[in-house]
Amino acid sequence: MASRSDTRASLTIPNLITLARILLTPLFIIFLIQGQYRKALIVFFLAGLSDLADGLVARRWHQKSPLGAYLDPLADKLLMSSSFVTLSIARLIPPWLTVVVLSRDVTVALGVAIFRLADLPLVMRPTRLGKWTTTLQIFTIILVLVGKIWLLPPLLLTGTFWLTGGITALCGVHYVFIGLRLMGQRGENGHG
Question: How many other C-beta atoms are found inside a 10 Å radius of the C-beta of residue 144?
């Protein structure tokens, strides 16, 4: 009986919106592979709107859930990572930028795993630099898609790639330093 209510509690409107975003990701990738950039751009915008909607509904109607806390960032990472990989394979984004983006995500995931394995408390809050990184990565994907629909100056894309790569790398290093500082504080507290 308790498991049924747990299941119902997990199937909140924000979680259903997030699941829809997860389902939009393969559609987005299919459109990219087929070179249907207008449709890909529309699906990407829909995914972005769903990200805004699930957060708004969760806050407004107090429907935050433990499942949503894991599902929402997972949906975001799935969309962003698969976008960068697919655009890189299609030679629309330089492979080095995809490596930088994925390396940062893997580094953050490893850091979280280390904290969990060491049974250390961890509250993940995005930093201002982390928010800038995400914004630049989204802007990069949109710009690449727009550049396939309308003519854009090549220098604009190149500059965006370098800016996104630099800020993403800086963000990854920043999160590593935050993780090391937190571990140091936990170590001092454990010995004190």
Answer: 23
Q: pLDDT tens digit string along 94-104? A: 999 999 999 99
Contacts of 104 (CB under 8 A, 6+ apart): 133, 168, 169, 171, 172, 175
Query: Domain locations in the chain?
Result: 1-91, 93-192
Query: How far apart are the C-alpha atoms of 160 and 90, rounded to whole Å?
Result: 18
Please name the helix (run of DSSP H) or strand (run of DSSP E) that holds residue 2, with its range, or none: helix 2-10
Sign of the CA dihedral with 170 first, then 108, 131, and 90 last: positive
Contact 13, 57 (CB under 8 A): yes
Distance (Å, whole) CA 60 – CA 78: 26
Enter the tokens of residue 53: 């909607």
Give 144-175 as a 3 state SS string.
HHHHHHCCCCHHHHHHHHHHHHHHHHHHHHHH
- DSSP state letter for 91: T
11 vs 136, more confident = 136
In total, the chain counts a number of residues equal to 192
pLDDT digits (tens, 9 = 90+) for 103-126: 999 998 898 888 888 877 777 777
pLDDT at 9 (0 to 100) = 53
Query: What pTM does this model have?
Result: 0.85
Residue with tokens 């396939």: 148
